[in-house]
Amino acid sequence: MLDYLDLEADLDEKERLIRETAREFVDDRVRPEIGERFEDGSFPTDLIGEMGELGFYAPNLEGYDSPNVSETAYGLLMQELEAGDSGIRSMASVQGALVMYPIHAYGSDEQRENWLPKLGEGEAVGCFGLTEPEHGSNPSAMETSADREGERYVLNGTKTWITNAPIADVAVVWARDRSEGGDVRGFLVETDREGVSTPKIEDKLSMRASSTGSLELRDVEIPAENRLPDVSGMKGPLSCLTQARYGIAWGAVGAARDCFEVAREYASDREQFGGPIARFQLQQRKIAEMATQISLGQLLAYRLADLKERGDLRPEQVSMAKRNNVRMARETARTAREMLGGNGITTDYSPMRHMANMETVYTYEGTHDIHTLIVGEELTGIAAFE
Ligand code: TGC
Ligand code: FAD
C-alpha cells in the first residue's frame, strides 16, 4: 500500500492493530460484495453488528467501554473503511461522530448510559438530522420546530438527505426550541415513535451502497428529557460536523489510495503495443502525480491528528483538509478510471464507484465551496456568507 513518505513507520502497536483489523475487514467482508451492493443500491446491513464488535464506532471517545484509541488510529480506521467504499465509512462516521459524539459531549448521564453502549456495539443505529429541503449549506435557517408542552416536546418538520435514516433506531434531530426563543437544540427521537417516517431516497447515482432517506416529523411527541441538555445554538451541530469532517479528511485518502493501487496494478498487467502500459511516460506521469497528491493528503491528515490529539485543532484547519483531500480523491479516482480504459467503467474495478461516491463526499459535510469560504473567512477576516 502506498506510504511513500514512510508515515506509518511512526505508528504505535495499537494504531497498527486497528489499521490491520480494518484492512482485513474491508478485504474479507466489504470488497467481495461491494460492487454488487453498489449496483443494487443497498447498504450491507449484516455488517453493522460486526463493525460494532470490532470497535469501529467512535473508538476515540472516552469511557462507556470505548477502546479510547488515538486520533491517528481513528483516522486510519476511516481511511481503511473508505478504501472499501465511502458508504461503509459514512455509516461508521455518522454513527460515531454525528450520533455518539453529541450524546457523549452534550447528553445527560441517562442519555449516555442508555445509548452509547448500544450504538457502540451496533445494536442500535443512529442518524443525524440537520439538512432540510430548503436549507442545506445554510442550516442556521432551519425551520424544524420543537414546542414544549408540559413534560414533553412536540416536533414538526422535515429533514432530508439523512444518511442511515431508513435503517436508524434513533435520530439526533436539530430543531428550534420555540419555548426558548427559537434556539437550536438537539433532540433524541426514536424512529418508532408515532409521526416519524424515514422514506428512502431512491435513484442515487452516487453513494449507492449507503442508505439515505428523509426524516419526516409530524406532531412527534418525545419526553422532555430527550433533549440534549448541554448545548444550545448552532455550535451544537457544527461541532459534530468538525468531528465527522476530520474523519472524511482521512477517509478520502483511503478512497484515493485504493484507486491508485488498482490503477498501478492494472498498468503493470495490461499490455498494449507489445508491453505493459506502465512503461509509457504518459502513464508514469499519472502514477507519479497520483502518488504525490495522495502523499500530500496523508501529510495533512496526520498533521490534523497531532493537532487534535493535543487539543489545538481549529475547525478551519479541518475545513482545509476536508476540502483538499476530497478534491484530491475525486481527481485521483478520475485519473485511475481513465488508466483502466473501458474496463474502468464497470463495477469489476473500484475507481468509477469511488469517483461516483466522491460527488457526494464533495457535497456533504459542507460543500467544497462552503469550505473554501470558511478558510477564506479565517484568512481575510471577512465572512462571505452574509
Ligand atoms: P457561525 O455563526 O459561524 O457559528 C455559530 C457557532 O458555531 C461555532 N462553530 C463551530 N464550532 C465547531 N465546529 C465548527 N465547524 C463550527 N463552525 C461554527 C461558532 O464558533 C459559533 O459558536 P458561538 O459559541 O459563538 O455561538 O455559524 P453559521 O451558522 O454562520 O455557519 C456558517 C457555515 C456556512 C460555516 C455553516 O452553516 C456550515 O458549515 N454549513 C455547511 C452545512 C453542512 O456542512 N451540513 C452538513 C450536514 S450533515 C452531513 O452532511 C452528514 S453526511 C455524513 C456522512 O454520511 O458521512
Ligand atoms: P445547496 O446548499 O443548495 O448548494 C447548492 C450549490 O450552491 C452548491 O454547489 C453549493 O456549494 C453552492 N452554494 C451554496 N451556498 C453558497 C455560497 N454562500 N457561496 C457559494 N456557493 C454556494 N445532511 C444531514 O443533515 N445529515 C446527513 O446524514 C446527510 N447525509 C447526506 C448523504 C448524502 C448522500 C447527501 C448527498 C447529502 C447528505 N446530507 C446530509 C446533506 C448535505 O450535507 C447537503 O447536501 C449539503 O450540506 C449541501 O446542501 P444542499 O444539497 O442543499 O446544496
From TrEMBL:
Record has Oxidoreductase as a keyword: yes
UniProt catalytic activity: glutaryl-CoA + oxidized [electron-transfer flavoprotein] + 2 H(+) = (2E)-butenoyl-CoA + reduced [electron-transfer flavoprotein] + CO2
Presence of keyword Transmembrane helix: no
Name this protein carries in UniProt: glutaryl-CoA dehydrogenase (ETF)
Cofactor: FAD
InterPro entries in the cross-refs: Acyl-CoA_DH_CS (IPR006089), Acyl-CoA_Oxase/DH_mid-dom (IPR006091), Acyl-CoA_Oxase/DH_mid-dom_sf (IPR046373), AcylCo_DH-like_C (IPR036250), AcylCo_DH/oxidase_C (IPR009075), AcylCoA_DH/ox_N (IPR013786), AcylCoA_DH/ox_N_sf (IPR037069), AcylCoA_DH/oxidase_NM_dom_sf (IPR009100)
Taxonomy, superkingdom: Archaea
Acyl-CoA oxidase/dehydrogenase middle domain location: 127-220
EC number: 1.3.8.6
Domain Acyl-CoA dehydrogenase/oxidase N-terminal: 13-123
Positions of the Acyl-CoA dehydrogenase/oxidase C-terminal domain: 233-379
Organism (species): Saliphagus infecundisoli
Pathway of action: Amino-acid metabolism; lysine degradation; Amino-acid metabolism; tryptophan metabolism
GO molecular function: glutaryl-CoA dehydrogenase activity
